[in-house]
Amino acid sequence: MTATTLHNPLREGLRFERLPDPCIMVIFGASGDLTHRKLLPALYNLAYDGLLPPGLTVVGYARRPYTDDEFRQEMRAAVERFSRRQRIDPDVWQTFAQGLFYFSADFNDRSAYPKLGEELERLDRERGTSGNRIFYLATPPDAYETITQHLGESGLAQPSQPGSWVRLIVEKPFGHDLESAIALNNHLLKYFREEQIYRIDHYLGKETVQNILALRFANGIFEPIWNRNYIDHVQITVAETIGIEGRGGYYDRAGALRDMVQNHMLQLLSVVAMEPPIAFEADPVRDEKVKALRAIRPIRPEEVNEITVRGQYGPGFIGGRPVPGYREEPRVAPNSITETYVALKLFIDNWRWADVPFYLRTGKRLPRRVTEIAIQFKRVPHPLFKGMMTSGVEPNWLIIRIQPDEGVSLHIAAKVPGPRIRLRTVTMGFLYGTSFLVQSPDAYERLLLDCMLGDSTLFTRRDETEAAWVPITQILRGWAELPPPEFPNYDAGTWGPPEAELFIARDGRRWRRP
Amino acid sequence: MNAPPAVPVDIEAIERELARLWQSPPWADRRNELALSRTSVLTLFVYAPDSQRAAWAREVIGRLSTHHPSRVVLFLANRSTSLEEPTVSIQCDLGTAGRYAPCYEQITITLPDEGIELLPSLIMPLALPDLPAFLWWLGPLPCHDRRFPAVARTVDRLIFDSLESPHPIADIIATRRLIQQVARSTAVSDLNWGRLGPWLETTARMFDITHCRWALESIVRVELRYGHGRSNTPDNPTQPLLYLGWMASRLGWRLAASDRRDPTWILEFTAPGHRQLQWVLFPESCPALFHGQLLHVAFTAEHDHDAANLTIDLTGGSDRHATLRLRVHDRTHCLLEHAFHHHLLDLQRLLVEELQETGPDWLYEQALDEATALAVELRKLERAQRGH
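The joint structure predicted for all components is written out below.
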């Protein structure tokens, strides 16, 4: 059976004027954590909400010798455990599970790929997927090159039928420094065209991150003051209470700078700092993000110590519970010098942001799980109300909270009622969930659906990835030239090393308490 | 017509009392672990014709409270001669809150039973400025009442439920007239149309795929079953007629003939190209929850040697767990099977979706236009049948 979408007069005016084409998603690394925790729950939730096309087919590719039924059972257990739905709808699951298949093979086995191709063609005939494919690399990054090479050499990387499409989703990390990122991109581009490659950074699938664009470009009041004339500085915080959760092997090689700053935090920075795109479409949006990343002031290795602070947690308490130090975590070297905390200061050298510092900090085992962008506006030019504040003269803050309690708040000074002139800071808040009356979909749901629809706006382009590696690689080089840090230097459950406070205090500023 | 008794409602006193409550919330979390969040996105006016429906409305509003609009004004019609003083309260959901507890204002005003024309004078001053105002009308919509358009015009969106209609066919015609009367100021939405959303989506989805696409121009017969689950209530074919109206408006079908073989309606249509097709609508016994709901639609398509049956069934037994299941068969085997959750039987979800829209729904209005033409025809048949 063939299945290509034609104009359908019944679709006009419906909630979704366009649904994805039926397709097969091949997940490499189907027995892994990402598939269980995120991908299958996201696909099931999309099916539950009626957002998947009939015939959507998932082929799990991994070494374990499962049958299709065993794979379905395992995926059902994963969905039951990790889906945001409270319970599985048996009817929805039954038809969804009919589209789940398993292909057992080693990623390195070249001979498996032609067989995979035959299996996909069989499924095309049975399920009407018309040669449309998504290959999802949910494997450790060291398998990316092998898999894509075999896909390319077996002819699976290009469409097999007129009108069909093939897409590749690549999970982070995209390399471990600029050179390896360029090498990986060059390798991918031997077999896939750039428009086929969807580099996923799940932060961009979060509603509030997309709302930054709405906040900036759909409101007349913000854009005129969104520049160096009115903004004193920007703080971006990604704080986690968790440790490394069994990922010691990976994390001890990566560290906070690669794991969090290079991707998530620089993505947040780019959407805050970018110029207005000419259209809300994939390339215009990404063009502007790349420009912002490229405008980050070049970092010289000798100045790294001045613009960064590294930390590593020791034992401490989280929520009243004792937790071990980083060096006591499984699969972490007992003398590890990997950073679990990093704070840094970046400048964006362009007309809009000249001399406005962007302070970024992220850490594990911090007291509260929070991700936020805080924009501090300049103080009023003349302290008219000096001495009349109840707790110091606070400049205005605009806080964009990404998790938890997604929303936006503006901190302003207001007069305390009474005969005297006394001011205090009050908060005008907008909470996403309470205002829009709906539960936000998981970021993976949004991104998987976008990929099926061929919309790459929320995925990172090659030049964006590489531009984000430039400052990070310079910092890594600078750190490599410095003596090893004295770790651990902060207790689990605190806001990071004391040096981080001194670091920002040198500029006459302080970290917000999120 | 006699003037209704006056209802002395001191709007300023209500506002003062609310301001006082916000200033010193007696329910504030004293441990200071929760921030009480006052979010303003709209004003929701609710009209309940009796205390039973008012209690039910309060329950629904309470369930919505974690993501609720900032002000709710509940008008309760009271048949007794003594009217109660308005009450005001602020409700916060501390139970499900994380760091923020969403709060909303609730004002309850009792009205005399015939107090419909008092409503504009109460709605207009109580609506929050610059935010959309919604009126959720519980019970039968007084769409035949000449005073009602003035009420509808005071809000941005009027929400009603044609499942509550005591005279469904006549009310379809009157509803369309009402929409035309208030079109410049107010959008009108029918929760019963909202419930059809997943049916429309599923129907469109069947014909998205090429090998089913031919069937759209080759439909020869459609069998449609809808629920009859309330013994003391007449059939309510509004949902089937809106569904049929939607298809007719999208595909350019024209009614050619109709017949009534109680309890079945038989409607003959002419499609573009002078093709004939037949719709058969009949009610089926069901639990009360599914009264008036589409239960089953089966399309039969024939073209040369091709034939296909495309069916959609509603399965499941509760408002929160119903599923739409789509199957496509050719002459020999099943080509396609697909299912997804039908969440819009859940009134809370349905209202949430309605409260996100402020503009008119042109798809509904076009479907209603066609449904009205059908209703006119069916009313003639009913009258003819009664004449015999």
